[in-house]
Structures are given as structure tokens and as C-alpha cells.
């Protein structure tokens, strides 16, 4: 197995590879960087660059215990595979937004083409003992394509997004052709038991699979595979240390000084429609409208680094938020106070941790989210003597674990405004009790626990049902 057998390596495959010394802004990248640095192995994927031809050469790099192998994409493949099918079709579908799904057969063809090129290269990079761990919705058919080329290695898949109910999945044209290929993996990991139920339901009722002893499934094609929930997490102790050291950074002091004693509410999200940002801004406006006593007493800082600018909906939501932020500040700002600081930039993790710790309230209200690592990072960053309050969407996977957060329906702006008011007024003993309960969960289920749970389920023969987590 990857972490015991000296011959076999861990081979991680994902669309984007976070090369050494690059700042990782996605949750997936943060999590995998930590896992590979500890274990060593190979990370294969797209370089993030465009070239005349997809995969004409493999770029290699070695750093610490990790080998990196990346390929470039052609403009046409990038448009069809990444912008088109992965982010224009699958992402909205997986986030319960069939209204935003743009399905074009040419995009699906591009998606399959790029997966084939990934498979061709991977075959040459792996040895029979390697354990492969493929990540996310960009690479669903990869194992099936590797199996067609005779690859018999253990291959695991982890889906970082939610998985909607079968009734919604079947709206995806040719869904069975695509989703059935998941049976070529030995183990499919999802974040929560809700996602797991959706996956099992899809396979059993739409794809002709049957359930076997020990939680295994038998696909219509006769392949035995397993699925289980592994809620992804963070480097809890590391983030807590970073946050506690952050007080020494001048940027953190600058933020504190600029607040001038006002309570800070913080939001940190990729600029994505799944994160519920327009609704969040509206809830904050609602709070200001109904609680004039909070004027000049509270500041909301929303950090939202732009992402996927090649997809139309992402450009549209950016414009919508600019309008809404301007409206809120125009209506409520005074010469010495702007209620909303809206920042389209990304910051290094050491500063983010300090910003989280400075904030009295962490506002995490996605409409749907596989897990949401920001919620967990906010909790881990708090000062144990004077912790802040997490407001968390019920529709983030993290809500299944962080049950003592103030849980809200993000679409209900009145409920979110209520929660903001309650959080800003919450007495210290209640803040401490709620925080301690969440921190306990994160100290147990950290990133190392997540990685070990997945890899031991992938490499050991024990029935996966015995090692389910987050039941
Ligand atoms: C996907 C799923 C799932 C954000 N801004 C900056 C920055 N970040 C980092 C955060 C956090 C990560 O990006 C975001 O992770 P999330 O989990 O919140 O969200 P997604 O990017 O949508 O991640 C999600 C995750 O994969 C893992 O499976 O939880 O549901 O959608 O780590 O800190 N990092 C830096 N500067 C920023 O400005 N350096």
C-alpha cells in the first residue's frame, strides 16, 4: 500500500497541480499539498498553461518528497473540457443548479478527449505497485480509460463537490454513460452520508447495480467497488499555530487599527455562484436596516478571489456583487465608516488565519458546498480565550460535523440577519462552549485523519462499511 509498501507510491491525479511555492487558493489544492508532503509520491495533472497541442510533453519537477508531472492543454481542449463540460455542465449540476447547466455535445467530447490524454500519459508514469488517487469531477471517466489500457492498480476517486439526488442527476444528458464509469474505481469517496446515499441510490436505481455484503456494490457490468463518506478536513493544529502567530504581522495590526474597536464579520470564498454571496450581502444589508444601533459598530470584510473567469456566470456574478457592494456602502457609509469591505484578491494563508482570528463572526453561507474548508479554518484560527462565532449554511457538508455553529438556510436572508445579530451579542461562555465542541471535532478529524482513512480503505481488504466516518 502507498504508505507501507516501499515499492508502491501514492500517485495523485487532479485537474490542477499546485506546484511548489505556488499559493493554493482552492480547497482541493490545500488538502492535497499537505497529504503529499507528508507521504511523498507523484502528482499528475494540468500545468495550468495553454499550448498548441494538449499533452505534447510532460513537464517534470521534483521538490521535497514529491514528483510533479504536468501537461499543457490546447485552447480548444481547455474551452471544451475545463470551461465547457467540467465547469459549464458538471459544476452547476453537482451544485443543484440545473438552470445554469449548459450542455453541448462538443464539450462532452472534449472532456472525454482530455481524459484519454491523461490516461495515455499516466500509463507511462505508473508502476504496477502504485496506488492511484484521482480527484474530482473533471476526471470521472479516468479509471475506466486506464482499465481499458490494462491498468490493474488500486484506483480511488474522491469527489470534492456535493452529489445531488438521483432525480436531479438523471437530467444530465447521457448521465449513465458518464456516471457508470465510476464503477471502474475500487473506492469512491464523498464528503457526507447524504452524498453517499445519493451515490448508492443512483447506482442501485438508475444504473442497474446491486448491493453486496460489507457495503460493496456490483455494477451492471459485474465490477465490485465500494463507496464511503470521508469528510475532508484541514491541518487543524498547523492553522491554529499560524493564527496565533499572526498577531506579529503588520498586516494584522493594520486591520485591527483600521477597525477602531468595531466588530469584524469575515467571509472568504472563491467568487462562485455556489457560495451564496449575493444572498449574504443582502442579509448584511438587512441587518443594517433593522439594527441602526449597529451602524459604525460593525464591519463586514468579504474576501472573494475571482475564479473561472472564462465562464459567463462567473463574470455575471462578479458584476452583480460589485453593484450590491456599491449600493450597501452608498446607502450606509459615513465619512469615517464603510460597512462593507469587498476585496477581489487572494491573500497568503498566514494572513488569512490572522484575519479569521480577528473576526468576531465567520460568515459561511454557501447555497451548496461539498464540505467548505473556510468554515473549518475559521474555527481552528480562533483564540480559545475569546473565540468568535461561526454562522454556517446547513447546505455545506461541514454542517454535518460543526453542529454547534449557528446553522442557517442561506437563502433566508432574515434568518441570516437574525444569526448575525445573535452572534454579535453572544456572551463569552456560550461562544466558548460552541467553539470547544467544534474544535474537538476538528482535532480528531484533521487532514491527516482524512487522508489515512481514505487510503487505508483503498488499500486494505476490510469491508469499507466498518470504517465509515461521519455517520
Ligand atoms: C472545493 C469544494 C470542498 C480562499 N481564499 C484564499 C484562499 N482560499 C482557500 C481557503 C480554503 C480554500 O481556498 C477554499 O476551500 P473551500 O472548501 O472553502 O471551497 P472550494 O474552493 O470551493 O473547494 C469544497 C473543497 O473543495 C475540498 O474538498 O470543501 O466544498 O467546493 O483552504 O483558505 N487561500 C489563499 N488566499 C486566499 O485569498 N491562500
Could you write a compact summary of the structure shown?
By secondary structure, this protein is α/β, with parallel strands linked by helices. The protein is 42% helix and 18% strand.
Task: Please report the distance between the alpha carbons of the first and last residues.
Answer: 26 Å
**Helical residue percent?**
40-55%
Work out the strand percent. 15-25%
The mean pLDDT is: 93
Distinct helical segment count: 16
The ligands bound in this entry are: GDP-alpha-D-glucose
Describe this structure in words.
- GO terms for molecular function: alpha,alpha-trehalose-phosphate synthase (UDP-forming) activity.
- Its EC number is 2.4.1.15.
- Pathway: Glycan biosynthesis; trehalose biosynthesis.
- This protein has 471 residues and is of the alpha/beta class.
- Helices cover 42% and strands 18% of the residues.
- A hairpin with a 4-residue loop joins strand 8 and strand 9.
- Helix 2 packs across helix 3.
- The protein is globular, with a radius of gyration of 22 Å.
- The protein starts with 9 loop residues before the first strand and ends in a 12-residue tail after the last helix.
- The N terminus and C terminus are likely disordered.
- Bound molecules: GDP-alpha-D-glucose.
Keywords:
disordered C terminus, disordered N terminus, 471 residues, binds GDP-alpha-D-glucose, 16 helices, 42% helix
